[in-house]
Amino acid sequence: MPLLIRFSLWWCVKNYKKEVMENSLDSNDEIKDATTNRIRKFQEIRGKDVGNVQFWDIVVITARDENQRRAYNLQLKEKLENKQLPLGVKYLSIADPPEAKVGNGGSTMHALSQLKTRFESDLASMKVLLIHAGGYSQRLPNASLLGKAFMPLPLGDPLYQMLEMKLITYIDLPSRMNPGVFVCSSDTLELFVLDRSHHNHSWSFKSPGFTALAHQSSLLIGITHGVFVLSEDLDLDSNDPIFIECLQFLHKPSMDVMKEMGAVRQHSSGSKDFVFTDSAYFMDYHTASRLIGFYRNHAPILCEIDAYGDFLQALGCRGTSEYTKNSQNVSEETDNLVSTREQVFQLLTGTPFHVIAFNKSVFYHLGTTTEYLHHLCEDVQLWNQLGVVWDDNTTTEPRHKRIRATDGRPGRMCLMHSVIDEQVDKTMMSIVEYCHLKNVRIGNNCIISNCRLKSKQLVVVPDNTFLSTACIQISNKQMYVTFIFNIHDNLKQSSRSLADLHFFRQPVESIFSENQEQIKATLFPQNCTTFKLWEMKMFTPSETMEESVTIALRLQVDITSNIQLKLAEFSKSLSMNDILEMKCVEGVLQYRRNLAVIS
């Protein structure tokens, strides 16, 4: 009889790679205690009316377009029906405007304007959690179908997703907050200690303007994040968070700029240099209403505005407008980018700007396949801080609720909401989520998501494989398509030449027997001048999930075996972009519900 393992996590350590600053054992224990306490608070109101608990009045998840918004609202509806979220809260998704790519800053202003229209004067008395999730998740395509806000984590019963983790992480904040908007990302985790003494009320979100969370990070992390410049008399040895004015915000600065601007600090103990980096922030209602007025006066916004780079760089007594002309971090520079940025600067300059500087906190990003694999399979520090309990064979909990670990061999599998048999080698450092697999052996460094395969013969999934199945609608008929990549393939890359585009680490032009022009005409959108894996039609729909997975794995074998493909075989194939347009969210959710009752 096969061993069925459901809703469980297998994991251990393999060459633990640090992406956050080292924390002392005491600090880790305190972060773990604080997080455990927040999880307990969340469980007390999960599926119940929040009542007198000070909580969010509105939780908003932004979406890239109407298709994604419908998917988000459908999942929110299911979570509420299954009592997986606190009740008495208004949950909704708001799609970005269709005119142009507006960035998370434009998305913020648009969402605020929509909230104002819907709630009118009542919005002035509400506390809003605004979670940015409007994107295709090209660097983590297992989140492309349903969104990063609905990525699973191996905690909770039912399983927590990133949305629940956001509600857990910030559960202590509304009680110290005036009406306003708290802005965050959907693919990050911030774990922190608020008050060791439990009597420290020196910090809050009740000051006018912006109040941001600030985390101690290495200079290397500072290069790719926002960095706060704070006053020199900051008490770095305080155990509690410090509420302090911010002099300037640096957006992805170089090490030299961080040093020149006085952002680099060091504890009195002589530890390594560090900087305070950003994660999430609050703006009071008055500030939010100014952004609403600006948006309504200037809509449609036809350029990318950054909710961090453009909003926060305008703040602080040292803030200048020099950044408005720097388009280094903009994916598409439009004609009115500089002028719009200058107008945003004029709107926000002089607005009060404070940070809550944590002495004990960590920041995790889970937005890429590499990060997702590392944090869910290797990161001992994260799982200790989340309070994950390793199975020591002494627990009395049912097997399907245990968090399990095997012996000390390198690499362990993270298995979530899945049914597998003994053929799956759980020593592999891979992620298996929402799968039903029989007679399948999975290699190392793989992400297998939403797949069903019950094979009579042993099927081997090679190392570094990304594999995920989507339910789609074709002519009102429900079908399935499995998309497959090498875990290191760059789905966001845009190239003018097929020679520079790689699929399974091989140039696309070398995969087919036909010439470049024929490949372009068959696999890519008409008249396109740049080429992306995201838009390449390589994935063939099938009537069953099993057949769809088999076709995808056969494609991988052919390519990696240097067997040249014929374009005629891909006449009905779909690209990732097509799949998202045709996705059937109801079908995906029904499949996952069915997994829960398999015995």
Keywords:
single chain, 599 residues, alpha/beta, 2 domains, five-stranded mixed beta sheet, 23 strands, 27% helix
Describe it.
- There is one protein chain.
- With 599 residues, the protein is α/β, with parallel strands linked by helices.
- It folds into two domains: 348 residues, no CATH class; 209 residues, no CATH class.
- α3 packs across α7.
- It starts with 8 loop residues before the first strand and ends with a helix.
Average pLDDT taken over every residue: 89
Based on Cα principal axes, name the global outline: globular
Strands in their spatial order, largest beta sheet: 7-10-8-9-12
Portion in strands: 15-25%
- The low-pLDDT segments are 1-24, 390-410
Q: How would a textbook summarize the main sheet?
A: 5 strands, mixed, barrel
C-alpha-based Rg, rounded: 24 Å
Number of domain modules: 2
Q: Share of helix among residues?
A: 25-40%
Q: How far apart are the termini?
A: 12 Å
Please report the number of helical segments.
15
Structural class: alpha/beta
Number of strands: 23
